Amino acid sequence: MTEHLSPITQERLTALRRLFHQHAETGMAEFWTTARIAEELEALGLSPIVGEKVSRQEARMGMPDDTTLRAAEERALREGAPHSRIERMEGVTGLVVNIRPDLPVHTVLRFDIDALNVQESDAPEHRPVREGFASLHEGICHACGHDGHIAIGLGLAHELMRRRSRLTHNVRLLFQPGEEGCRGARAMVAAGWLEGARHFLAAHIGMWAEKNHALVCGARGFLATTKFDVEFSGRAAHAGAEPQKGANSLLAAASAVLNMHALPRHGEGDSRITVGTLTAGSGRNVIADHAFMTCETRGATTAVNDYMFEHCRSILEHTAAMYEQHCRIRLMGGSDSAGSDDSMIRVVREAARTVPWFHEELIRDSAPGYGSDDACVPMAAVQKQGGDAAYLMLGSRLAAGHHSPNFDFDEKTLLPSVELLTKIVLMLDVI
Fold first, then answer.
1. Which of residues 301, 335, 369 is at a domain's end?
2. Structural domain count, the chain
3. What is the CATH number of the domain that holds 233?
4. Among residues 179, 228, 173, 208, which one has the least CA distance to residue 38?
5. What are the tens digits of pLDDT across the range 72-95?
6. Which pLDDT tens digit goes with each residue over 168-186?
7. What residues contact 379, with CB distance under 8 A and at least 6 apart?
8. FRET label pair with 314: which of 129, 187, 345, 391, CA 20 to 30 Å apart?
């Protein structure tokens, strides 16, 4: 039956992108999104895997609290997700699908599915507003192109099913939750979905390919990162009458921030420390008995990032002791460093030459990684077991930068991107 599918069309991909754009959901709570992806895949004759098998529980990071997850499930149901599908997810978003489950896995591709905690622009010139597909959810929108990535992933599944009998190996597609904050990939890798894979691919719209018809065949130099929250708990006291009886969490946090930012940098590559938020105390005349910080480290390599994080941990623990605090450090996300392999870059360039959308003069072999990306975890996992990997940047004119309320991309890049990935997969199938 699948061999007689008609080719995927630009109109269908655009409609899918806009549908997911409207139903934007944040990381690890993408219930409506997961349900709709599963529905689309089942319509192709595939059997998507959902629920606890998708990711290892103890490896999940940055999970929303139970109240947030229940609210997201209830919203998904209100917006038409079947109750049976939500139940089968067992509170876990994202899914895995095998194109040829009867054959050994050979190539794995990752498509991220989460949106951002960003309020989408309501300006009349913003195309999602002008054309009626802006986010339905206050304070949440697809401001990074993951809605396009979902459409491309579904388009690829469609095209691979049209050619299913030609495949000599299994192709596995990961629709990954929680890319923002680097929260979702490590748990999927821990669940074993990359074991035995020879090739890994991820792709992102835009980034350093900000022109139509451009392509970066393989990004390199992504920074490893660790995301962590810190809580200091001290003792409150009257600031005027009995300050000596307090244990000041605000002072402890402030001291820790200054000392973390004073860490010596590493000689083997770039390193970063950022304390993004710090909140503390309850009133002007009360010694603060609590403080909360959201932090991250980054490094040019995983070893450099580990150096930064472990020194931050030491500073936090020693500061807590100095200020009589209880200190809790909670890991919220993290990714390895990784880069694309020359062998994969050659395959991507060769395939791109056969897709007219990508213009030779705008095709680059490599470009710097765009900060950090959760795809580096499966990239590194496949490379560690002797395989190769590439991270593509798909050219598109952007209305504004990534994570901007005005972000939008040119939907004309969707169909050529499906064609490119299909050709790459077929080429890798025989390598």
1. 335
2. 2
3. 3.30.70.360
4. 173
5. 999 999 999 999 999 999 999 999
6. 999 999 999 999 999 999 9
7. 200, 202, 336, 338, 339, 340, 389, 391
8. 187
298, 348: one domain:
no
Q: What angle do CA 27, 187, 378 make, to 5 degrees?
A: 100
197/249 same-domain check: no
Residues 156 and 240 in one domain: no
pLDDT of residue 2: 65
Q: How confident is the model at residue 121 (pLDDT cuts 50, 70, 90)?
A: very high
User: The tokens of 376 are what?
Assistant: 């580096």
Are the C-beta atoms of 217 and 349 separated by less than 8 Å? yes
pLDDT value of residue 1: 47
Q: How far apart are CA 149 and CA 316, in angstroms?
A: 39
Domain assignment of residue 181, given as a range: 2-222+338-428
Q: Give percent of the chain above pLDDT 70.
A: 99
Give the Cα separation of 47 and 50 in Å (integer).
10
